[in-house]
Every structure is written in C-alpha cells, then in structure tokens.
Amino acid sequence: MASVDFCLDTNGIFVNFGFRMDTKAIDNGNIGSSLSFEADIRNAVETMRRGGIILYPTDTVWGIGCDASDPDAVAKIYALKRRDDSKSMLSLVDSVAMLERTVDDIPEAAYQLIEAAVDPMTIIYDHPARLAHNLLAPDGSAGVRITTERFSKELCRRMRRPVVSTSANISGMPPATDFDSVADTIKAGVDYIVAFGHGLGKDSRPSSVIKISDGGVFKILR
After folding, report:
1. How many CA atoms within 13 Å lie on the side-chain side of 168?
2. What is the pLDDT of residues 140-179, one digit of tens each?
3. pTM, two decimal places
4. CATH for 6-220 (3.90.870.10, 3.40.50.11740, 1.10.10.10, 1.10.510.10)
5. Distance separating alpha carbons of residues 48 and 54, to the nearest angstrom
C-alpha cells in the first residue's frame, strides 16, 4: 500500500507537502475519522487557498478538488489523473447565486432543469466566467453543478467560489464510488484527504450531464 507523506511538527499539527492541518488522528497514512466536521472543512479550505488539491466526498462519487479559479492547481489534478488537459473538468457551486457569478447568460431552460432535477445533474454552459482557463473545453464551455451534499456544499460556501470536482481515479479507470475504492496513487498524490464520508456506501454514481446551448437547445450527454 502506498504511503502518504504526513509528519508531526513541533506544534502537534500534521503536515503534508507543506500544508499545515489541525488534524487529531492519523491511520495508515490517511487522516483519521475523529476529526470534527468543522476542522475538516477548515483544513480543506486552507489547503485549496494555498493552491493545493484535496480528496473529498461529493454529491456523486469521491472527487479530487481545488480552487476552480486557480490554473496551477487545476494542472496538478490533470497530472495526478494522467488526464489529457483537452478533456475539461466540471466545477461545483453551492447555490444558484454562485452559479450566476460563474456563468454568464444562463439560458432559462437551465433554471427549469435545475428546479426539476431530483438527482445530481451537471449542466455544460457556453459562457463560463471566472474559471481557470484549463477547466474549459476546447469550445470554451464548462460543466457546473449545484451540489446539495453537506460537505461539498459547505466547501463551496467557505471558498466563496466554485470548487473543481473530478472523479478520484486515474483517467480511463472506473470512478471511486466510496473512499476504499480510491487508488493509493490518488491518495498519495493529493495535499489533503477529507475525513468526512469515509463510511458512505458504494451505491454512488456519476451525475447526468446535459449541454445547454444559446437559445435553450439542450443535449443529454450522459
């Protein structure tokens, strides 16, 4: 099993790749579950604000995330996943208000789909704004999803901006439906592993994906 390079500094704080985290437990190279929700959120936000990448639970499968406005952090995720940077990655937002700060000229059809959605749904928009350039598809579009899951929603709220959400797997491999399914290479390659959600079941699945173009024309991609 691959190890994760954590060490304990003189102040009793675990440090990974130069990031300081108020962690209370560590187990087999991974952060232990005794960490409080609040401390976990703080650690994840601090890591992303410093340009790091995190492993975290989302409203679908386990994901790798970073500040969606930071192109250097986005590049780290592409490298870790061994993913061609021509294949765009989606971002999570916590509300319609944040979506409206992230996308210009949102079609009315998108609002209708969001209101009617029962399960997680990613919408690809033609006019993203204030996202890292390397998150965009070759045609300039970007996928954004409003999350209702507790941890990822709070993460976006604390960051006050979108958070990248791409499945925690090497490109071409199956998505990680629970924490135990995440490959050791992914766990070793992130700057922070969220403690919350490790015990969630394996029935998670990726979201639906719908592309909406100007004029409200949409196409179901997944």
Report:
1. 32
2. 999 999 999 999 999 999 999 999 999 999 988 988 888 9
3. 0.82
4. 3.90.870.10
5. 7
